[in-house]
Amino acid sequence: MRAPLEWLSEYCDPGLPTRETEERLTLTGTKVEAVHHHGVAALEHFVVGRVVEAERHPDADRLSVCRVEVGGDHVAQIVCGAPNVAGGQTVAVARPGAVMPDGTKLGAAKLRGVRSEGMILAEDELDIGSDHAGIMVLDRLIPGGGDLAPGTPLAEVLLIATEVLELEITPNRPDCLGVYGVARELHAATRAALAAPPWADDPGAPGEIPGVEVRVECPDLNPRFTARVFEDVTVAPSPPWLKARLMAAGQRPINNVVDITNYVMLLAGHPVHAFDLDRVAGQRLTVRRARDGEEIETLDGQVRRLDHEMVVIEDDDGPTSIAGVMGGARSEVHDGTSRVLMEVANWVGPNIHRTSQVLGLRSEASGRFEKGLSPEQAMEAQALATKLMLELTGATLVPGTIDVGGEGPPPATIRLRTAKVEQVLGMPIARERQAEILQALEFATAEAGDGLDVTVPHFRRNDVYREADLIEEVARIDGLDKLPVTLPKRRGAAGRLSVEQRLRRRAVDALAGRGMHEIVGWSFTDPGFADRLRLDAGDDRRRSVALENPMSEQQSVMRTTLLASLLDAARVNIAHGRTDLQLFEQGKVYFWPEGGGAAATAANGGDPRRGGMDHRLPREHRSLGAVIAGRMHPQTWGTPEPPRAGFFAVKALFGAACDALRVPWSVEPATEPFLHPGRSARILAGEAGEPVGWIGELHPLVAREYDLDEGAAAFEVDFDRLLGHAVAVPAYRDLTSFPALRQDLAVAVADDVPAAAVVTVVRRAGGDLLADARVFDVYRGAQVGEGRTSLALTLAFRAPDRTLSDEDVAPVRDRIVTALRDELGGELRA
User: Fold this and answer.
1) Which sign does the torsion angle of CA 379, 382, 383, 384 carry?
2) How far, in Å, are 182, 354, 355, 359, 718 from residue 553 at the CA level?
3) CA distances for 580 relative to 290, 704, 729, angstroms
4) Tens digit of pLDDT for each residue in 140-149?
5) pTM for this structure?
6) d(CA 791, CA 434)
7) DSSP alpha helices (H): ranges in 716-805?
């Protein structure tokens, strides 16, 4: 919403500097995003001039050399290219030193060898219109223009410069989508006087209009429809003041009738639409639901295909407007229009929002209607439009007003208790001040025993409906900065992390402590992620949740794996030259349960909102994932070739997180379509070995998709399941001072036997005396035979009450050797 200060000050002028006006509005909730300068600068160099004579340029057929009185006794020589310049005209002149709208500073110059001391201006060169066909002739454009003295400051005659407030209006405040609504807020914030509303005097009257009929077949979507008819309309350019205000507010002037509809919308906050009554077939309008597949050509020249949820306005020849969104081309006002039907209707906001979204057609009108305007505002805008039509088009108002539906429900009255205001805000506000604030916002107040009875105005009906809302109104206008700084009451509450939060933080700190960088990726991704990850057609991770209203195609589905956002982040880093990466993320992933998603949507007639999935909702859980690529630490003179990312590097990082959580874990051979077939595994957690995720190096084809040409490794686990095996409070275990007895063991097994299986068998057979077992060497060669691998393990035996001897350990060692032979076919090597 753009609110020109000049226009705003017509209804409320606090006499404050622009910066202070901005601050007052922002502090009361009407946020000013920016302040723009519209028009020209160095105003002292823009003056009224009178053309004494205009002669043909000696060296250019399309240029004229003019002598122009610009004040005092000075006559300036100005070269002008406009075809309509002539002697005796009163014109707008920019003298050397003037700053044009684009920031160009004007100076004296020579044009085809003739000196020119300024410019005779067209309206677009002042940013008060869009016409560039000729210069502005003030004696034709403004009353008394021919009597203006040369040298009169142009700013006294035309709106050639103003500050414009760019406002961020929240969806609950459509009343502030009009200049008068913003003026009302400024009045309440500054206590400056507020002028009467511009629709206060209505020149129209109720009653039927002979020969014109309006029928509303869907009153549930069209609570009110008003219309008036004007005859003897003269369509012409709007006066400069109207063009200037529209330009400053971001609207392009077209003609006086269309400009009036835009002006009323910007001032009153309610859209207006003008029909050429002679183009309305049968002079009858019908408001109805559209038919599926019905088409209409809108004012932008596009043909739109409608459905039965949308509303159209039609005449006897068919649809002529998409209700609340855009008019049709067939009945638009044109230069030959002499009779106008002015329609101001009220539409149900959610329906207009859906129509706009489905058609991909957003307009100034739809942006207001979708936020919920009151039926009473329709007649306010109709009254204002009537006044302007009579004033600016020379029209005659046909007696009567079509009004189908009427006003909204009676206003609500809410009790505002003085004690409750103090309880909620933490400080007292005098009842008189509360009444003053609410009355400034056009709430009606009456004294009550314990406070005020407050009647809500129609334009706040959808926003204020309980006592807390009134307290908010009082607080924001009186000044939220005045409220005391206090902590909220929290009886019995303690400011500490939950057990789950502490465990999550413990794992995150372990990864960050090893040099990894935590990222926060989008929960959205593009539908192509499943193909890039080579997921099979039946893979659960293909059951992504599609958004009904996505921000873009690249963010149209919810992620089913953290790998999608991690790899997107890796690709961005690589594009910026960062090839050594250690990234991790914890966050939610989302997916349909089996039988949900597209299958359930199809079963419900293709509409995802009709229950879907037999009323089952998408599932979500928290995951922990990481991606590493490149070198694991920086290159130095001591390590010119640092270790690179790979399976064992990412396994060590995951192990650090599990160690921090005290989760026993292991891996077993497994594969994923996006992982290297020979360098991937499934992660098992807990003593029972519950599968919680995967780990491994990326498949080369997947790595190439994300510009990871030198490969990468990753892991991802269901964080919630992993934490289910964590030890939040470790139990004390007595330490022993007795030394361990260490022995080495070499066993030959088949090549396809994982080392993890060997270690598992050793630990199980070793019993309580075996404190530790790990692989320290791997050998393949002629001494163990083809298809065999020798694993060297170091074993540590320890007892809590004594120092062990070889005789104590021998039976345990024999059990281990026997278990390896019987379970894995292992052979003890000498």
Assistant:
1) positive
2) 37, 19, 20, 17, 28
3) 58, 16, 36
4) 899 888 899 9
5) 0.70
6) 84
7) 719-723, 755-766
